[in-house]
């Protein structure tokens, strides 16, 4: 019997499990995929929004501002890179300028600090590559950038290091309520827990219905992106938005925390909660709008395109509520869900306390998780020390990202452990460079096969039967 079962290992579930690990609780994280951060937390903009966009008084507004203020410390504790680069919402004339004035007032009502409107030389000084048609911008200095899946992995890992358990490939089929506890049934296993927290992303409404509470729906919203090589990473220094519409914040142009340039996303409502295919029209729109915002984007340096799905709730706000003791729903966590995630976790723990659960602080909780060794970022002295202590750090496996064998082995052995090539990719950036794994994949497969004690041909790209090899072509000597 667990004290708490968290359904969903996206950033909200991850942060919630970590927050709960601060108390004497037996915690289990249940994830339907073979790894954490496989839904919206894997494919989004990685922007820590300042909080000026949400309606004043909403949970989105309140938790966005709180979460953004918490993010730098959370990232530091978890060993995750975070940059406070600020954002600019750009306008093209008097009508947009009026909208920016309204956003400024909304942001001030939400408690966002240091917002200001920029025009003329001051705007060009901050971003020389803005399109010549841009006339004004709302500047939010508290906005930042972070890697969403790295943050999620680190939060789950920190929760596990503090005693939480993770069960992957656990797809919830049924939730049965008993007197004082819940029975969570998958196709192969049943988990018992006194408290259930539904953080199932796009499937939060499905999970709620299983529990007998179908009071909200979640619809997916497609967003397509284009990622450019690090040679383009300095095209802009801030995150650049256009004035928002009812469909969201629109196309952005932003540096990533790892030094690339990101363009996107599109915004298309749909029904299919699994369709993450990119489209010719979608990517064409991303390029056209991005080039209208920023001059000098070298689209020939594109190295990857991808699509993510945002979980849009039926209420227009975050749905974080409980209608029954011990069952808490966290649904409709679309943007700014990543920004708000540390505050959402604290809010959920607060709901448990309101329901009368006695949460005893665990004095042994360690909030800190060591950063992955980033060999290329180390000084020459530090690199020499690392190689002396462990010669595997002296062997570069991924040349594009300068990732060493030592970093890959460390990632394979840390919580939560990867089980495939994409899992290693998300943890180390090996295979994320210009060649997209063209040179390093075979050697990483060899390391995975040895560490996981699997035949070479059973190493998958992204779980399931996504094998790269079917067998040997000839017998070895």
Architecture overview:
The protein has helices spanning 11-20, 59-78, 94-110, 120-126, 148-161, 204-210, 280-293, 337-354, 380-389, 405-413, 421-428, 441-452; strands at residues 2-7, 27-30, 47-48, 82-83, 87-91, 116-119, 136-140, 144-146, 165-167, 174-178, 181-185, 190-198, 218-228, 239-242, 252-255, 261-264, 268-269, 302-313, 319-324, 327-331, 396-398, 403-404. The strands form 4 sheets. Strands 5, 6, 7, 13, 14, 15, 16, 17 and 18 form a 9-stranded mixed sheet that branches. Strands 1, 2, 9, 10, 11, 12, 19 and 20 form an 8-stranded mixed sheet that branches. The mean pLDDT is 95. Helix 2 (59-78) packs across helix 8 (337-354). The protein is of the alpha+beta class.
Question: How do the strands and helices of this protein lay out in sequence?
Answer:
Layout (H helix, E strand, L loop, with lengths): L1 E6 L3 H10 L6 E4 L16 E2 L10 H20 L3 E2 L3 E5 L2 H17 L5 E4 H7 L9 E5 L3 E3 L1 H14 L3 E3 L6 E5 L2 E5 L4 E9 L5 H7 L7 E11 L10 E4 L9 E4 L5 E4 L3 E2 L10 H14 L8 E12 L5 E6 L2 E5 L5 H18 L25 H10 L6 E3 L4 E2 H9 L7 H8 L12 H12 L25
Parallel strand pairs: 1-2, 1-12, 2-9, 5-14, 12-20
Antiparallel strand pairs: 3-8, 4-8, 5-7, 6-7, 10-11, 11-12, 13-16, 13-17, 13-18, 14-15, 15-16, 19-20, 21-22
Helix pairs in contact: 1-5, 1-8, 2-8, 10-12
């Amino acid at each position: 019997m667990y004290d708490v079962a968290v359904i969903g290992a996206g950033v909200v579930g991850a942060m919630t499990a970590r927050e709960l690990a601060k108390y004497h609780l037996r915690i289990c994280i249940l994830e339907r995929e073979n790894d954490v951060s496989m839904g919206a937390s894997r494919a989004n903009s990685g922007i820590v929004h300042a909080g000026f966009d949400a309606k004043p008084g909403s949970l989105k507004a309140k938790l966005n501002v709180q979460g953004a203020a918490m993010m730098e410390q959370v990232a530091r504790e978890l060993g995750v890179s975070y940059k406070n680069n600020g954002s600019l919402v750009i306008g093209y004339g008097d009508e947009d300028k009026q909208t920016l004035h309204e956003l400024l007032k909304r942001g001030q009502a939400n408690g966002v600090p240091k917002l200001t409107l920029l025009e003329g030389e001051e705007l060009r000084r901050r971003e020389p590559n803005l399109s010549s048609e841009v006339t004004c911008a709302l500047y939010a200095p508290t906005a930042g950038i972070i890697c969403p899946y790295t943050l999620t992995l680190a939060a789950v890992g920190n929760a596990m290091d503090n005693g939480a358990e993770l069960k992957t490939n656990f797809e919830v089929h049924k939730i049965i309520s008993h007197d004082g506890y819940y029975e969570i049934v998958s196709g192969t296993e049943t988990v018992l827990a006194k408290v259930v927290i539904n953080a199932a992303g796009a499937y939060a409404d499905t999970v709620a219905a299983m529990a007998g509470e179908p009071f909200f729906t979640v619809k997916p919203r497609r967003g397509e992106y284009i990622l450019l090589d690090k040679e383009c990473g300095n095209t802009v220094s801030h995150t650049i938005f256009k004035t928002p519409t009812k469909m969201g914040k629109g196309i952005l142009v932003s540096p990533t925390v790892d030094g690339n340039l990101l363009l996107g996303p599109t915004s298309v409502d749909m029904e299919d909660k699994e369709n993450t295919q990119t489209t010719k029209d979608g990517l064409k729109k991303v390029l056209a709008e991005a080039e209208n915002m920023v001059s000098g984007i070298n689209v020939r340096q594109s190295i990857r395109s991808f699509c993510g799905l945002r979980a849009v709730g039926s209420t227009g706000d975050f749905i974080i509520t409980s209608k029954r003791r011990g069952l808490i729903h966290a649904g409709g966590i679309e943007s700014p869900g990543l920004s708000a995630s540390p505050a959402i976790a604290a809010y959920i723990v607060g709901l448990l306390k309101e329901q009368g659960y006695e949460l005893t602080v665990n004095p042994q909780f360690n909030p800190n998780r060591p950063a992955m060794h980033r060999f290329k970022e180390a000084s020459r002295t530090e690199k020499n020390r690392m190689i002396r202590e462990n010669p595997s750090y002296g062997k570069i496996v991924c040349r594009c990202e300068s990732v060493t064998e030592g970093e890959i082995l460390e990632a394979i052995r840390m919580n939560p452990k990867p089980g495939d090539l994409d899992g290693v990719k998300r943890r180390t950036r090996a295979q994320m460079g210009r060649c997209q794994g063209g040179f390093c994949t075979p050697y990483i497969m060899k390391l995975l096969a040895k560490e996981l004690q699997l035949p070479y041909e059973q190493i998958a790209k992204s779980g399931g039967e996504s094998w790269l090899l079917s067998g040997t072509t000839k017998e070895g000597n």
